[in-house]
Amino acid sequence: MSEILQALSNPSMRHAMLVHFPIVLSILCFVAAGVHLAMGGRNRTLGIGVVALFVALLAGAWIAENSGETAEGFVGAIPDAARHRLHEHEEMAESVWMFALAGVLISGAGLWVKPRFSLAAAGLATVAGLLAAGWVGLTAHHGGTLVYAFAVGPKKPVITLAPLGPDADPRAAHFRAAVLPVIADRCFGCHGGDEPPGGLDLTTPGGALVGGGLGPAIIPGSEESPVLIAIRGGNDDIPGMPPGDDLVTPEEIEAIAQWIREGAVWQ
To answer: Which residue segments constitute the domains of the chain, with CATH numbers given?
Structure first.
């Protein structure tokens, strides 16, 4: 209980907990409305249950949105790409209530219309539930990207440089010895901070995997990873990097290529 109370006192953790309510409720709205439709839309008890679920979704969406606005005030400085994703997430969350309200009105009307119209009302309520569940799912995906790709919120992936044990993944040892020093020296200076070029932040694994305007910079297992193309001189779409005369040596390029081929383990 103390852990729950402690989590609720943290705005980011509180939001991460509360967003599960609209996710679950939107699915329940769709399922319940679908069952009501399958039963002909004339079961009044089930119809009342559908209305109640949409009302709960409306309330849950409002609570989650407000908790998100509170959590946003504690985000601090983040890269432009993360800020843009946060803005998209916020705008999508602000629209959930419209799907919920539509479900309330449609399913509620189905309780009062003539029996011959009840099936149509149940069908429309099912569509509203499906749209609500889909929209909430997309909104949740944007939120998950913020947490796990950009390290915004309760979980903050970090590069740990604690000593590796004897049974450590050799790919991690290779990353630390041959890859991290290169990208730290050649890349972090530009592709870090609050406004990295092209929105590409290479100082975190999430930033590298999500990428900037051109998409992911690192694609685990792929020789076509943009970062490899860039350090090999670039092409028509991807400029050569780093700029200037301080080019990455062939040995360093091969070390990075090996790291990406083996899964781009970042630890």
So the answer is: 2-148 (1.20.120), 170-261 (no CATH)
